[in-house]
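Re: beginner question about structure tokens

> Can someone show what the tokenized structure looks like for a real chain? I only ever see the sequence side.

Sure, here's an example I had lying around. Input first:
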Amino acid sequence: MDIAVRIAKIVWTGFWVGLATLLVFIPIVVTASLSSTGNLAFAISRIWAWIMLGVTGVCPEIRGREKIRPGQSYVIIANHQSHFDILALVVRLGIQFRWIIQKELRVVPLFGVALYTSKKIFIDRTERDKAVQSIRDGIRRLPPAVSVLFFAEGTRFPGGAIQPFKKGGFTTAVESGLPVLPVTVNGSRKLLPKGSLAFKRSPIEVVVTAPVETRGYTHGTIEGLITVTRDTISANFNPDYPEGRRV
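And the corresponding structure tokens:
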């Protein structure tokens, strides 16, 4: 990519991140103060996500949304390839959910306050016990029919392959008794690879598969739950997307 084009895209994205954050900041903070659930704030955050997708020319597609049962809370487990993953999931899953965020983001001007007031779950990854307790507390505070999202690989990786899954989200599912909802995201790595600030035009696909019930699983058998979920997500993963996409 030409250096001038790259710089222009970075400036364009940065401008819209700032403007979109300013547009939704006050509505999110106000609605969060009026609602203890954070549901209104989450609904407004969809506007932010749609703005960022629109200015980068991305319209995510979804398959399998009918597998999501209305009124059911889930532990959503997804692969993670790009910052655009969360945008695609917010606008396409069609359900209320919260996600796990590193506590460092709380200090980002406006953006961090908006995340906090919309009831996201902040954790300190440097202290495992505190992180686990923060997640448990966050799950207990979830309103009815609200789910929680985990990117099970823990972080984004430069390559296209799905990495081993960490236990955190699965432990949460087993302890809470919530079903796991496997979700595969395709195409986002091409749009914004890790380490890049300049986006490329590329479609994104979100694939939802049947929930996995966690009844019967224990801490001792949690590896089986991880294997089932990872195999399901991997089966729908297409590292070459949009090549080979289903029609």
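Each token stands for a local structural state, so reading them left to right follows the chain. The chain has a mean pLDDT of 85.
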